[in-house]
């Protein structure tokens, strides 16, 4: 068995009687009598006649080029030298070609038993025992050949256009195939940038760069960006790489941004709260949305009944979302499932969920009665940066919740509108009407509904 150790001390290439070349990962070794200080980890092997590989029959010698980019193997019974490209990052090999005695004017490889590479990487020398000769080969530098495809198999030429067609506004992820299969050298993707962005923003590269693609191989490049509004969008994408003929590789990306056609949720959940089961949901967009209803059942696939008396009004629009919450107070302990119904302006509906929450007998004992007006202490308190305020009203009515500083100055109005009977939640992020963050101190929150008025104290601590 012949072996060759690379100067990098990271891979160990072996030849076997299976007419194959295998390599293993080598962490570190001490070349003393020769003993390795750590075990080897098998990675892969290439066998004569498998996957198009040729020239390895009775493989006798293997060597790695000084630059680490190629591996050469002498195949005695094939009278040949097999050539592999090498991934300098992983050590993995890709078969490139084989040079055989008597083919294409090649001579001197009869019974090839050894192979080596000159220190300057310009020549390969192979000993042919049957020819009593040394065959000399010149090494062509080779070059990478980039080809960008989307979808895979459909090329986008350098300077070409990628028409994405209609896309819903918001975040977009795009996957390109980077093809280096026509090359005998490694392709390096160094950077990807976007210029001249129109009606779009936030371009970023999801894939890890630099990306090293071995010769005769492909890889995936994923990028993302945001479509900012309805209408045409475009940008120029430049892919910097080591293919000197096509760097940067320029692609003009374009398409049409469309408004979402339905409510899109980013979250929807249910949990046991201080005054009942709290359902929370946050929307990404709310095109043509009138509002929401909450439906409840005791079984996931059971009959659902609406629990809110009046429609919960929409706060978002076609390009932005909002956060909502609703407190339901079942009459007894048990398992409860909730669905969220969105109602469009034209009356059509769609459902989201279900989500689950379990209410125990202990929870029931803790729930405050809902036949009175209630204003709970905010939580957490003290707080930073956000706190939650829960309140309850026995009948539908106009509710106003306001925040005041210690001097009685109105800071912000959190709620001002009609609310259904039951328990509700509102959150405050310690900012005033203009969105300015407030300093630490004592603040007061007050709820008004008809003749009912209640004020509680809270502390903002940064």
Helix share bin: under 10%
Sheet/helix structural class: mainly beta
**Would you state the CATH class of the largest domain?**
Mainly Beta
Low-confidence stretches: 1-9, 24-37
How far is the N terminus from the C terminus? Answer: 70 Å
The CATH architecture classification of the largest domain is 7 Propeller
* CATH fold title of the largest domain: Methylamine Dehydrogenase, Chain H
Describe the structure.
By secondary structure, the protein is mainly beta. The protein has four domains: 136 residues, Methylamine Dehydrogenase, Chain H (7 Propeller), CATH 2.130.10; 112 residues, Immunoglobulin-like (Sandwich), CATH 2.60.40.10; 102 residues, Immunoglobulins (Immunoglobulin-like, Sandwich); 87 residues, Immunoglobulin-like (Sandwich). The protein is 1% helix and 56% strand. It has one helix and 37 strands. The strands form nine sheets. The protein has a five-stranded antiparallel β-sheet, with no helix packed on it. The protein has a five-stranded mixed β-sheet with strand order 15-22-21-17-19, with no helix packed on it. Strands 25, 26, 27, 29 and 30 form a five-stranded antiparallel β-sheet that branches. The longest helix is centred in the C-terminal third of the chain and has 6 residues.
């Amino acid at each position: 068995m012949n072996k060759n150790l690379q100067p990098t001390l990271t891979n160990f290439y072996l030849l076997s009687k299976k007419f194959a070349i295998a390599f293993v990962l080598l962490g570190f070794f001490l070349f003393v009598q020769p003993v390795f200080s750590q075990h080897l980890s098998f990675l892969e092997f290439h066998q004569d006649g498998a996957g198009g590989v040729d020239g390895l029959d009775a493989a006798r010698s293997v060597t790695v080029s000084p630059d680490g980019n190629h591996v050469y193997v002498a195949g005695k019974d094939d009278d040949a030298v097999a050539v592999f490209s090498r991934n300098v990052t992983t050590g993995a090999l890709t078969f490139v070609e084989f040079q055989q005695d008597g083919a294409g004017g090649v001579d001197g490889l009869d019974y090839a038993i050894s192979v080596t590479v000159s220190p300057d990487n310009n020549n390969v020398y192979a000993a042919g025992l049957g020819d009593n000769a040394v065959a000399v080969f010149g090494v062509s530098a080779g070059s990478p050949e980039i080809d960008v495809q989307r979808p895979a198999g459909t090329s986008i030429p350098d300077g070409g256009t990628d028409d994405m067609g209609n896309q819903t506004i918001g975040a977009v992820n795009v996957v390109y195939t980077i093809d280096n299969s026509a090359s005998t050298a490694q392709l390096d993707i160094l950077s990807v940038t976007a210029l001249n962005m129109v009606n779009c923003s936030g371009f970023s590269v999801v894939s890890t760069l630099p990306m090293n693609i071995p010769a005769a191989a492909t890889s995936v490049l994923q990028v993302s960006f945001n479509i900012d509004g309805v209408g045409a969008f475009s940008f120029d994408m430049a892919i910097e790489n080591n293919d000197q003929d096509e760097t940067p590789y320029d692609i003009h990306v374009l398409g049409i941004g469309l408004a979402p056609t339905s409510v899109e949720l980013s979250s929807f959940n249910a949990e046991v709260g201080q005054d009942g089961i709290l359902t929370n949901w946050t929307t990404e967009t709310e095109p043509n949305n009138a509002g929401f209803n909450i439906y409840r059942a005791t079984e996931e696939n059971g009959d659902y009944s609406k629990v809110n008396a009046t429609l919960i009004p929409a706060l978002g629009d076609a390009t932005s979302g909002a956060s909502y919450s609703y407190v339901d107070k079942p009459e007894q302990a048990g398992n409860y499932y909730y669905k969220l119904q969105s109602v469009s302006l034209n009356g059509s509906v769609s459902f989201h969920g279900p989500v689950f929450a379990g209410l125990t007998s202990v929870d029931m004992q803790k729930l405050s009665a809902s036949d009175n007006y209630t204003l709970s202490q905010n939580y957490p308190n003290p707080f930073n940066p956000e706190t939650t305020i829960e309140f309850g009203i026995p009948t539908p009515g106009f509710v106003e919740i306001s925040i005041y500083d210690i001097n009685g100055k109105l800071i912000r109005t959190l709620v001002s509108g009609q609310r259904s009977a039951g328990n509700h939640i509102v959150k405050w992020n310690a900012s005033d009407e203009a969105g300015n963050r407030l300093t630490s101190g004592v603040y007061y929150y007050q709820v008004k509904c008809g003749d009912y008025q209640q004020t509680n104290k809270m502390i903002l601590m940064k």
